[in-house]
C-alpha cells in the first residue's frame, strides 16, 4: 500500500512541508479511504506566506500588463491541458461526478480567460483641460497582498473566482482552500507558478479557523474574498472589516425555481431535476425550492418519476448522475433535516436516505429526496440543506410566487420557467434576488459578468468576476496636473484658474 501523501503549502514559489502538529485526514467520500493528510498550519507559516507575497508585490506591481496577460494566457493553456487531472482530484476528494468536475474546471477557465483581457480592462480615464491648463486622470492600481478563503464545493472554480483577476491586476495573493479537499486547489496554484507567476505572487496555506482569522487580521493583507456558508462568512466579513480591510463574502442561499403552467413541461422538469440533484445538491446555486404555479402542480408526479431514474454512484462512474456527500457529517446533517421535514408533516414523495451503492457501502450517499406540502416555517425550507433535497411549494398565481420568493431572506439566485415574455419581464422586474435565470435553473453568469448574489447571501458591495472584481481588487488614484508655461499668479481661492 502506498504511503498517504501530506499536502504541502506553497510559499515563495516552492512546495513546503508544514511543521504542523495537527493534521486532518482527507477522505474519499465514496469509500472513506484516506487519500491525503492536510496540515493545520501554524500561524508562523501563514505569516511566512504573507511575507513572501509582500516582498513579491514590490516587483510584481511594476510588471507590465502585457507580461501579466501572457502569464494568464499560459495558465489557461495549462489548465485546459490538465483538466483530466484536476477533475480526478476534485472527484477523489469532493465526490462529484467526473463530468461535473470537468464542467467545474471549465467554469474556472472562463475567469482565467477573462483575466487574459487585463490590458483592456485595467484602464483609467483622462480629461485634458478639465480646468485651464489642467489635466485630470485616474490610475487603476493594485492594492497589495490579498487573500482568498474558499469552501469545499468547488475546489477549482472558487479559487479561479479570486486569484486570476487579483494577480492580473498586479496584486499578490494568499489562498486558503478548504481543508476537506485541498489537492485540486493546490495543483491549480502549481500550474499558475508553472505558467510564470514569480515566486511569492501566489501562495497557498492550509488550516482551519485560526488560519482564516489570521488572514483577516494580518496587517499586511489589504483585501479578503470569501465564498462559503453564511455562518462563517459573517464572521469573516466582520473580522476583516474591523481590521480595516476590504472584504467580500459570498454566502448561503435558498434558491427557488418558479414553474408556470405555460412553461415547456419537458424542459422545465428536466432542468429542475439537474439543478436540484446535480453535485448531490452541494452547490450554493443549487435549486432547493420549486414553486409550482397553478396547474403546474399537476406535473409533480412526473417530476418524481424522473428523479427516481437518476443514478447514484461513486463520482468515478461517468454514468452516475450524482455522487456522495462530502463527509459523514454532511450526510448525517442532511438525513436529520429530512427527518425534520417528516416530523413537521411535509409530504415525503421520494426518500433518498436508503441509497446503497454496491462496492461503496461506506460512502456518504443520499439519493434524490422530494417534499411537497412545504411551508416557510419548516426547517427544510428555512435552512440551506446542501444536499439532494427539493422542497415543493404550490401557489395559484405568478404574483403569489414572487411574493413568496421575496419573503425569503436570501438572494443568491432564482429561476422562472415560462414561454411568456410578459411573465418573464414581470418576474425579472419584481423579484428581489441578485441573479435571475429565465428558462435556466442555475443562473451563474459567464465570468465577464459579475456574480451578483444579494441580500443575506452577500456581504460587501462588490462580487467576484466581471467589472466588480476589477473594482474590488484595485484602487483608484486621481491625479490633477498642471504643466504651466507661464506663472499664473497667486490664487487664494478654491477655484482652479
Automatic annotation (TrEMBL):
Domain Aldehyde dehydrogenase: 18-479
Keyword Nuclease attributed: no
SUPFAM superfamilies (alphabetical): ALDH-like
InterPro entries: Ald_DH/histidinol_DH (IPR016161), Ald_DH_C (IPR016163), Ald_DH_CS_CYS (IPR016160), Ald_DH_N (IPR016162), Aldehyde_DH_dom (IPR015590), MeMal-semiAld_DH (IPR010061)
Gene3D superfamilies: Aldehyde Dehydrogenase, Chain A, domain 1, Aldehyde Dehydrogenase, Chain A, domain 2
Keywords, alphabetical: NAD, Oxidoreductase
GO BP term (any one): thymine catabolic process
One Gene Ontology MF term: methylmalonate-semialdehyde dehydrogenase (acylating, NAD) activity
Class in the EC hierarchy, top level: oxidoreductase
EC number per UniProt: 1.2.1.27
Coiled-coil intervals: none
Family assignment from sequence similarity: Belongs to the aldehyde dehydrogenase family.
Protein name listed in UniProt: methylmalonate-semialdehyde dehydrogenase (CoA acylating)
Organism: Advenella kashmirensis W13003
Amino acid at each position: 500500500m502506498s504511503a498517504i501523501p501530506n499536502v504541502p503549502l506553497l510559499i515563495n514559489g516552492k512546495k513546503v512541508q508544514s511543521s504542523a502538529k495537527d493534521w486532518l485526514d482527507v477522505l474519499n467520500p465514496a469509500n472513506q479511504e484516506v487519500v491525503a493528510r492536510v496540515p493545520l498550519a501554524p500561524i508562523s507559516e501563514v505569516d511566512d506566506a504573507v511575507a513572501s507575497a509582500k516582498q513579491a508585490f514590490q516587483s510584481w506591481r511594476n510588471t507590465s500588463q502585457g507580461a501579466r496577460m501572457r502569464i494568464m494566457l499560459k495558465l489557461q493553456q495549462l489548465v485546459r491541458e490538465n483538466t483530466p487531472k484536476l477533475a480526478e482530484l476534485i472527484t477523489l476528494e469532493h465526490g462529484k461526478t467526473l463530468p461535473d468536475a470537468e464542467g467545474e474546471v471549465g467554469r474556472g477557465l472562463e475567469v482565467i480567460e477573462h483575466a487574459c483581457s487585463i490590458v483592456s480592462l485595467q484602464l483609467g480615464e483622462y480629461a485634458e483641460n478639465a480646468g485651464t491648463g489642467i489635466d485630470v486622470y485616474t490610475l487603476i492600481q493594485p492594492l497589495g497582498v490579498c487573500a482568498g478563503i474558499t469552501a469545499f464545493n468547488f475546489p477549482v472554480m472558487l479559487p479561479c473566482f479570486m486569484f486570476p483577476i487579483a494577480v492580473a491586476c498586479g496584486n499578490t495573493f494568499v489562498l486558503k482552500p478548504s481543508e476537506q479537499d485541498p489537492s485540486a486547489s493546490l495543483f491549480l496554484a502549481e500550474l499558475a507558478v508553472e505558467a510564470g507567476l514569480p515566486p511569492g505572487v501566489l501562495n497557498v496555506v492550509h488550516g482551519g479557523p485560526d488560519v482564516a482569522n489570521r488572514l483577516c487580521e494580518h496587517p499586511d493583507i489589504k483585501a479578503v474574498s470569501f465564498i462559503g456558508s453564511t455562518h462563517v462568512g459573517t464572521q469573516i466579513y466582520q473580522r476583516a472589516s474591523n481590521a480595516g480591510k476590504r472584504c467580500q463574502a459570498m454566502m448561503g442561499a435558498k434558491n427557488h425555481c418558479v414553474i408556470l403552467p405555460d412553461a415547456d413541461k419537458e424542459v422545465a422538469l428536466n432542468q429542475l431535476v439537474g439543478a436540484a440533484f446535480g453535485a448531490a445538491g452541494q452547490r450554493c446555486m443549487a435549486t432547493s425550492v420549486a414553486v409550482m404555479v397553478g396547474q403546474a402542480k399537476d406535473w409533480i408526479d412526473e417530476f418524481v418519476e424522473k428523479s427516481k431514474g437518476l443514478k447514484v454512484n461513486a463520482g468515478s462512474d461517468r454514468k452516475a448522475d450524482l455522487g456522495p456527500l462530502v463527509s459523514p457529517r454532511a450526510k448525517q446533517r442532511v438525513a436529520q433535516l429530512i427527518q425534520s421535514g417528516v416530523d413537521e408533516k411535509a409530504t415525503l414523495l421520494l426518500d433518498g436516505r436508503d441509497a446503497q451503492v454496491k462496492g461503496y457501502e461506506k460512502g456518504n450517499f443520499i439519493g434524490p429526496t422530494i417534499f411537497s406540502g412545504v411551508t416557510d416555517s419548516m426547517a427544510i425550507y428555512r435552512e440551506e440543506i446542501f444536499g439532494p433535497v427539493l422542497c415543493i411549494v404550490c401557489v395559484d398565481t405568478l404574483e403569489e410566487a414572487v411574493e413568496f420568493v421575496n419573503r425569503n431572506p436570501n438572494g443568491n439566485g432564482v429561476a422562472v420557467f415560462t414561454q411568456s415574455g410578459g411573465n418573464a419581464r414581470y418576474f425579472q422586474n419584481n423579484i428581489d434576488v441578485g441573479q435571475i435565470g429565465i428558462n435556466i435553473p442555475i443562473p451563474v453568469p459567464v465570468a465577464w459578468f459579475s456574480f451578483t448574489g444579494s441580500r443575506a447571501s452577500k456581504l460587501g458591495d462588490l462580487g467576484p468576476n466581471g467589472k466588480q472584481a476589477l473594482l474590488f481588487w484595485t484602487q483608484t488614484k486621481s491625479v490633477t496636473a498642471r504643466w504651466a508655461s507661464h506663472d499664473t499668479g497667486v490664487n487664494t481661492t478654491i477655484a482652479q484658474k
